């Protein structure tokens, strides 16, 4: 039997659920396991990228079971719990992605190395610049996020490569003074670092330091993905690294249903339309619209979703066109979604991670029923 070369993962929000704190994330993990997935991911947020004002039972049927949209469990703890309570299966476990500056990079290096040891070599450290709303409201410095990100990666690599010897390193953000990092790698290998990069400076950093590239599909067109991958591989070659060793991955937010009519109805839900605020002003402009948050708005990196009241959100997204929604989400029946991800494969993607937004709609019944096409999608993608 031909060994699959296309890898598939599932990302689940680690939200507190009414029936059990880990019910949602555990259900996602078991889905990934049951569909023979390759990886399971949780993001690292302190607050949601969806405005809490529309994540209510008035607009989202599933809110009756997940009533606190900003109640994110701490992701490293969650993955450690999953690793300890599920001895079967060999899913790789990833943070997708953590902030470079909110946590000191020495702490991030420790957390990732610990998970790698606990899982016998299955941890992935996904890392990016982070988002304003998980930093600025909590008193964390938010200036120069890309420069801070690059220094964070360099610090993590320096500690991992130290062999336990004290490290002294100058840095404008994270200076080290006889810093000791003595955790060992698992069988000589540290966790892979996957970088959430969406622009030229981040591409260069990914080429220099990363083992995988992990952007969000809604932030790039397919042609931009191909061009970005070329830039990353060039940067890797310039740094004396093997460009082909960098895994080209991508996170896809999906809205699935049993029919296209069901999917169109789900896309019309206020909460799903509100997620388009996370797209950049440039993306909105491609569809002939000005971004409600300003013509220079960069998207998810700068959104402060908890600040937006219900009326503001509903008014801002009332006229969102289907074309914009379908750029932010891979939407359709199971067959539709598999075909669309296949197009991204043709542009270089080799590890697709699915973030399921299908439950963020008015109908709780259809949100639950969307689990059926989700499983078909995860199984079908393995055959690409």
UniProtKB/TrEMBL annotation:
- One Pfam annotation reads Bac_luciferase
Q: Which InterPro entries match?
A: F420-G6PD/mer, Luciferase-like_dom, Luciferase-like_sf
Where the record annotates domain Luciferase-like, the positions are 65-351
The protein's UniProt keywords, in alphabetical order, are: Oxidoreductase
PANTHER family per UniProt: 5,10-METHYLENETETRAHYDROMETHANOPTERIN REDUCTASE, PTHR43244
Q: What is this protein called?
A: LLM class flavin-dependent oxidoreductase
